[in-house]
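Posting here for the record, re: magnesium ion.
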Amino acid sequence: MLQVKNVSKSYRLTPVLNEITFQMQQGESLGLIGESGSGKSTMAKLIVGLEHADGGQITLNDVDFQELRGAELRKARRHVQVVFQDPLASLNPKLPVWKSIIEPLENYPDVVPSFLKEVRNDRKKMAGILLEKVGLDRNLLERYPHQLSGGQRQRVGIARGISLQPNLLICDEPTSSLDVSIQAQILNLLKELKKEFNMSYLFISHDMASVQYMCDRIAVFKQGVLVDLFLSKDLFSDTRHPYTKTLVEVTVES
Ligand SMILES: Nc1ncnc2c1ncn2[C@@H]1O[C@H](COP(=O)(O)OP(=O)(O)O)[C@@H](O)[C@H]1O
Ligand SMILES: [Mg+2]
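Prediction output follows.
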């Protein structure tokens, strides 16, 4: 489904990503782990087409985003959505919850995911269904972001992310801004939604425990280089890259 081949990116001559290559299958979840500044979010931006790579190829369902412009890029982008780390920053403070949730649907008026077909002429009902999918009550529809808890806000961000029923949902540190007690609930919700909608996840985190819990495979970034890529069940194998082993030790100690 997703193919990333020899992708490089620099900001002002400083290399941020170096010849990155990996693939993802439909329905798979791939973890992307590495310390802060290792290029994880940049990789995400390249995949959604928010930034352009200096070299290499990124194709989603055999479509090369780098070659698309305007309407074509917009059309292709629909299949990839992102859940951001900080839901307060990614939600418009002036919009009630229901409007934030249906914003992606407003951007693609001709797209109606099958689970919303019955209410296709009622935007608010669409938002209501999406809100329930993420475990929130419909009575939150009229609230504003600042009136919600951090966990509720992230659920709203997830409702937005799934509204177009994307093939690929990129979760960029989706629980990093949340209390530890809430983190597991959000991870479990993401797991359930993945099953229900057969989405693929690119799950970005600096926390090995959550990546291992969420993902079939794990890719390790170190200073813009993909140093290790393996099945989650092989995390503790002797053949792991030395850098991966140091990440595992940090997890075990904390
Ligand atoms: N728009 C930008 N302009 C200049 N440098 C950037 C920009 N975005 C990211 N960087 C730099 O690229 C590196 C990787 O950043 P990022 O992809 O956000 O890492 P991560 O998400 O792994 O923490 C960092 O050194 C960061 O400062
Ligand atoms: Mg980041």
